[in-house]
């Protein structure tokens, strides 16, 4: 697993490096900000999920790497914008200054925009898949994961939570803000191989629970994590009045809920037997991670 993860991370990085590219005719500052945000940082959880899901159903590794790189571009965009003064106003991300601190606010906004465009450019390229119908579906599903029913909609619920938010309000926010891209990562990987409708529906069930688990752990780490290890300021959720899992359920219940969801993830994967080993490991990581 460790060797595999290293290979995945290297391949994602070289794909992203090539995708950002270098050209004397382009703004060097924009390329530098994009590279700073997307190359060589983060756990690559979503990209790894895509590759693990693709390999499980017999999909092509190289195609999965390209999709994983596109997803990391969207993820990086969401982090750049989330860190801006008008949103979470963070100065540290992945253990280094946030993009607007390292460059400036305008450059950060534009670098995010360019990374979002780059994600769709990667997906629409024939190198990602020779079949135009599959490429169109990859693009469509990513647009849906990013838009009103996905990251953008979830971020609005996060910034403007209802008064006395319930568990279902919290889950509605977290399943969009974080879950939608994780769901897409699994679904896109599955699109590369052979998957019956029944298998696909079990993979989607798995991915939806995993997305919630991942964000619940993020909320728990905001309360009990070590800022050095997490690489950003913690303890911000309660202060900002977010309807986080810990604010709504309390830390202990949030942890219990993540264990319940982990069991449901494993149940959804049970029919895939030992082919699902990487997805099972990624689930365990999501529940227990310290960063
Ligand atoms: C239009 C793409 C788009 C976004 C606009 C700003 C925004 C709306 C959404 C932000 C959503 C957000 C920041 C969700 C948090 C997700 C999350 C758990 C981030 C941390 O992910 P990790 O732990 O980070 O995978 P690394 O650094 O490891 O990649």
Protein model, in words:
The protein has helices spanning 2-20, 28-38, 45-56, 61-83, 99-102, 105-124, 132-146, 151-159, 167-191, 197-224, 227-230, 236-240, 245-249, 251-269, 277-288; strands at residues 92-93, 96-97. 45% of the residues are buried. It starts with a helix and ends with a helix. A hairpin with a 2-residue loop joins β1 (92-93) and β2 (96-97). α1 runs antiparallel to α2 and α4 (61-83) packs antiparallel against α6 (105-124). Helices cover 73% and strands 1% of the residues. It contains 15 helices and 2 strands. The protein has a two-stranded antiparallel ribbon. It is globular, with a radius of gyration of 18 Å. By secondary structure, it is mostly helical. The model has no long low-confidence stretch (mean pLDDT 97). Geranylgeranyl diphosphate (GRG) binds at residues 42-43, 45, 74-75, 77-79, 81-82, 94, 116, 146, 151-152, 155, 177-178, 215, 218. Geranylgeranyl diphosphate is lined by residues 42-43, 45, 74-75, 77-79, 81-82, 94, 116, 146, 151-152, 155, 177-178, 215, 218.
Tally of helical segments: 15
The run of helices and strands is HHHHEEHHHHHHHHHHH
DSSP E strands, number: 2
Biggest beta-sheet profile: 2 strands, antiparallel
Global structural class: mainly alpha
Uncertain segments are none
Q: Strand content of the residues, in percent?
A: under 5%
